[in-house]
Amino acid sequence: MNNRRLILMITDQERTRYINIHSIFRQVGLYALIFLAVCIVYGIVSVRAFKDEIVSMSALNAKILAQYEKTQEKNAYLNSQIEQRSEEIGLVGDRVEDLESIIGVGDAQNTIREDLRERIDVASLTGAQKVFVMKFVPNGYPLDYYKRISADFGYRIHPLYFTKHLHTGIDFATDIGTPVYATADGVVEFAQMGYNGGFGNLVKLDHSFGFRTYYAHLNKIVVTHGSFVKKGQLIAYSGNSGASTGPHLHYEVRFLGNVLDPKNFIEWTMSDFSSIFENERNVSWQSLLTTINSLMGQVPPQEEQQSSPTAQE
Ligand SMILES: [Zn+2]
Fold first, then answer.
1. Which 3-state string (H, E, C) describes 239-298?
2. How far is the CA of 136 from the centre of ligand 1 (A)?
3. For residue 149, how far is its CA from the centre of ligand 1 (angstroms)?
4. CA distances, 23 to each of 4, 32, 234 (Å)
5. What is the mean pLDDT of residues 217-238?
6. Confidence of residue 305 (pLDDT cuts 50, 70, 90)
7. Of the candidates 188, 196, 174, 169, which has an alpha carbon nearest to the alpha carbon of residue 259?
8. Is residue 118 predicted with pLDDT exceeding 50?
9. How far away, in angstroms, is 179 Cα from ligand 1 center?
10. What distance in Å separates the CA atoms of residue 231 and residue 212, rounded to the nearest whole number?
């Protein structure tokens, strides 16, 4: 039985050849075994290499985690530093207030805080304080001459886009080249020729106490960014630039970035000083007046006597 071997016999004209199939199978088996052995060895080596890689990766991961934690700690430390600094700043502020109350500057403010209603009473303001307000808060017309008001402040259908929108200013129809004046003391925040989002050639003035005025669709600008202007100073000439349907000046008054109805400011005069406080409710006028009062109304009488006559106007 064991001796049964498969032998292939190939015969041609010249000779007969014998091929031992059994030994071929044995050879093939040997090769397969070697191949299998190589595969196993390779597998083992590969797994080892992967393991090493995993180990080094987790080491890197741990390192990064440690760094992250360190950064977090540093962040927490910096945050606490910021808090401490803020507290210190608050403390300094308190001390300044203490100092003010010692000098006698802050006293008025504290009593006013308790009774704000009484302080809105405009009659208590001195003439000098009123002049101060009219110098720094926009009032009056930005031009000496105009044909008519072609658009008021408020919601309307846009003349070019036919959509409902807020007209953010007041339009004075006037000839190109009409002189345009600053409506309060301030600094030129923006003065640029161009489309400027439809405003055209535009001047923006930054005034005190959070007020801003815009003068749009200009023809010519005569002030530059950063220069200081007085109330009534010539800043530009009106035009028809940007998204405009005809020669006009678009004038805006803003407070803390919000647009207000310029009409109340235009009609505000020294002789009708309290009108703005009734018509424009988006500004806390009483706190503004309180501030102005404490800024220039609290000069102790002795100090006044001590100052030399030449120093007085
Ligand atoms: Zn307009």
1. ECCCCCCCCEEEEEEEECCEEECHHHHHCCCHHHCCHHHHHCCCCCHHHHHHHHHHHHCC
2. 24
3. 10
4. 12, 14, 114
5. 96
6. very low
7. 169
8. no
9. 17
10. 13
Confidence of residue 268 (pLDDT cuts 50, 70, 90): very high
Distance 304 CA to ligand 1 centre (A): 49
Break the chain into its structural domains and give their ranges.
Answer: 1-99, 130-279
Asked if residue 238 lies in contact with residue 248, where contact means CB atoms within 8 angstroms, the answer is: yes
Structure tokens at 197: 């989002």
pLDDT average, residue stretch 268-280: 88
- Position 301 pLDDT exceeds 50: no
DSSP H or E segment with residue 181: strand 179-181
The CATH classification number of 130-279 equals 2.70.70.10
Q: What is the largest CA-CA distance in the chain?
A: 149
The per-residue pLDDT for 156 is 81
What is the Å distance from ligand 1's center to 81 Cα?
A: 49
Residues with CB under 5 A from ligand 1 (ion): 169, 171, 250
Tell me which residue of 171, 173, 141 sits closest to 247, measured CA to CA. 173
| Residue 201 confidence class, pLDDT cut points 50, 70, 90 | very high
Q: How many Cβ atoms sit within 10 Å of the Cβ of residue 70?
A: 10
When pLDDT is averaged across residues 216-244 and rounded to a whole number, the result is: 96
Distance (Å) from CA 171 to ligand 1 centroid: 5
